[in-house]
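User: Hey, quick favor. My workstation is busy. Could you predict this chain's structure for me?
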Amino acid sequence: MRENPADLLPELCTLLGAVLGLLTGMFVPRQRQWAAVLVCALGVLAGLVSAAFAVPGPRVMTFDAFMLDPVTHVTRVTVLGSTLLVMALAFKPLRGHRRETEFHVLTVFTALGTVALGASSDLLVLVAAYLLASIPSYALAGFGKDAQGTEAALKYYLMGALFGLLMLTGVTLLYGLGRGTSYETLGRNLPDNTVVTVGAILLVAGLLFKAGGVPAHFWVPDVAEGASPVVAALVTTIPKIGAFAALFRLGAEVTPHSWALTLALVATATMTLGNLAAFGQDNVRRLLAYSTISQAGYLLVPVAMAGRTDLAEPALLYYIAAYALTNLGAFAVVVAVGRDRIGDYRGLAPRSPLLVLSLVICLLGLIGTPPTAVFVGKVLMLGAALDGHYTWLAVVAAVNTVASVFYYLRWIVPCFARADEGPVPSRPAAMVAYLATALTLVLGIGSGIALSLN
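Assistant: No problem, here it is.
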């Protein structure tokens, strides 16, 4: 353990970028708020670079509450990299908006809270990170101040408040029984009894809300459809990264013996419900929302195997990085096209072949088709379940993967049909889609090199 501020350089750079961006936006004309956006982006970029340089460092606890280990390193790099992609997606739609600065500042604060969520090793820091990752995202969901956005923000906030209260109740129970809030203390002092199990379940409830897992998933389709497409991309991608990292750390260091079975059942319900609900969706944003719920179920598999197999950690870390890139790529296509109905994509391939190619790669990637990164993540996930002696869970995940092919193809096939006219895609958003698609292919093809660095 040590107390060196340099250990928190990525977080400090990100925080400084958000604060300076907010101050810059207060003193520049509305038509020049791009300067404030640039400051925010530079802060996130500096945080990303410093996080990359910190990867080879030793595993160490800093400030008695912040763990520096592979989970934290991957969380930092994935969250900050994804934040830059989201900011790039938002730049043109918000250009000249009277609250352009506020949008980007709230995005950066959401990312900062997510990083802290994944790196915290103390229950009090975990709660503070949960609030920091949640409150700005509530504001972003209702940023447009229209009827749908307001309704989505209200549902998002009320569910967040409910599950946040359950989380605080769980923290209180575990603190009382474990005589401390640090994960190390709790892992040493907590007895294995029913009250501890109840406390752990209540604590997990709050993190399942951020992850979009059953039974805390109801907000996901409403926010994905009601908020702007850029916000939908953000809330279905970035907060999940920190939530799964936090869940994995709890599973490896704190939770009782019933953790694996409980999370395995939640994972089964989450992936199955997400896939079944996606079958009948005609709105592409709701389809992607239920897709993210099913992906949360797959990501819960290595979380459930925490402490049971050495494959659990690389499976989770590789999967969250792959999922973030692939999901952002799919949402970038939606932003570029600017339409929400599957029928609106009819005949898109002749007009924008590269954009459709990106969409096809991302959607097939979410299924787990080689050579995309999610394919490697799913192979590792299934391996973790088998190695952890949960063969039935691996079978359920494999069956759900096959079942998901249908609703992704329902979106892909119309793109190649004939149509005389259609929407003209936005070039900046299309560039983000191309970049995310390229990165998911690179991560998939280079999986051997990436995994050897673990």
